[in-house]
Amino acid sequence: MDSRLSGQMDKGMLGMTMLAGAEPARERIPVFVAACDPLSRDGMASQLRGHGVELVDERSLAPDVVAVVVVDDMDDQAVGEVRALRRRGVERVVVVAARLDDAGLLAAAEAGASGVLRRGQVTPQSLLGCIRAAAAGEGSLPPDLLARLLGQVGRLQRQVLTPRGLTFSGLTEREVRVLRLLAEGLDTGEVGRQLFLSERTVKNVVHDVTSRLNLRNRTHAVAYALRQGLI
Length: 231
Prior knowledge:
The longest helix is centred in the first third of the chain and has 25 residues, at 3-27. By secondary structure, this protein is α/β, with parallel strands linked by helices. The protein has ten helices and five strands; from the N terminus they run αβαββαβαβαααααα. It is elongated and about 65 Å long. It has a five-stranded parallel β-sheet, with helices on both faces.
């Protein structure tokens, strides 16, 4: 064989070897599988092996880990499991549930799940797609579940929040108006004159907001409203 051709082949093979060795290391996602029984846990783990993830145990939980929680129903125990993982610093949790009604779907969202899948419809591809979305900081729901969740959110707004003058931020419209004017540099007396309220009422509004949302002071309340995109 021509020595030049042999050298080119060697270089090409070396490049392919380096690429093959480096690529999986960049793409591997650390995944922790939690389930109510060992059989469910091992079954879910087997679907993930060889698909670009690194299965980790409970000792390796960290913010970059995606936790896959396998449950029968999204009941209080399942909600507690998701919240416990979030408290331990796991920011991305995917729930795989055997049965999922509207209340369970909303409970999963409220507990902080990044994605939800039906156990009977899970394939390695759909599960990996949900994990990758969670790892990228994105939410993931099948289209029909997304429609159901939006319906639940709409009903919650109409039936619970709106009659009480609340929004999903936890603030009333009057509280938002007060914080917006405070953010513009007005003092409580000036805010009162703008909104036709007494200064005492404005102070009470600010006190209610800081107490209800566990905020330190008026400045913290304004900062909260800014972060929530309300003002």
